[in-house]
Amino acid sequence: MRLETDRLLLRPYQMKDAQRAKELAGVKEIAKTTISIPHPYTLGDAEAFIRNSVQLIDENRAYPLAMVIKEQDLLIGTMTLRLDRQHNKGELAYWVGKDYWNNGYAQEAGERMLRFGFEELKFNRIFVPMMSINKASASVMKKIGMSYEGTLRQDIIKWGEFQDVDVYGILRSEFLKR
Q: How confident is the prediction for the chain on average, in pLDDT?
């Protein structure tokens, strides 16, 4: 499976990506604002993520894809769509390496993943749970047409402290009107 945008290729991870993923996801600012990335993020963590990613895609349960700048064949982050077939919806999750923030990559990849979810998988809804402190992600979600749906107060524990989680979402009917 491969999805393309003007600048990006979204493709399955390969074990050769492990060291680069470790370097990018190992930056404390990435872990600080993401629900599931630990810090420190080790090479073993990256390798386990890649093995799990391959399995999830093979089982058609999720699409954790490497976000790669096409021209340079350079891994810069991850864009994932988790499938909930029972309720005909998907959960979007992502991170972008710090050196690549504020370049529109998350927006570009997010829009492509929405198209994939609604046009190819025929989902009715796609949503994003994100840490409330992650204001940059909230901005990206608004730019790709998602609406703020609410806050789950003290929903997760990150580094020993309860954190709020904001939920953004978009319906198929709203996406198709754009």
A: 97
| Residue 175: inside a domain | no
DSSP state string for 89-116: EEEEEEEE-GGGTTSSHHHHHHHHHHHI
pLDDT over 90 at 1, yes or no:
no
Q: Is residue 84 part of a domain?
A: yes
Range of the domain at 79: 3-128
Residue 83 lies in a domain: yes
User: Beta partners for 12?
Assistant: 65
pLDDT of residue 131: 96
CB under 8 A, 24+ apart: contacts of 36-45:
36/93, 37/95, 39/159, 43/18, 43/19
Of 110, 164, 174, the residue nearest 137 (C-alpha):
110
Mean pLDDT of 43-57: 96
Q: What count of other Cβ atoms lies within 10 Å of the Cβ of residue 26?
A: 19
Q: How many domains does the chain have?
A: 1
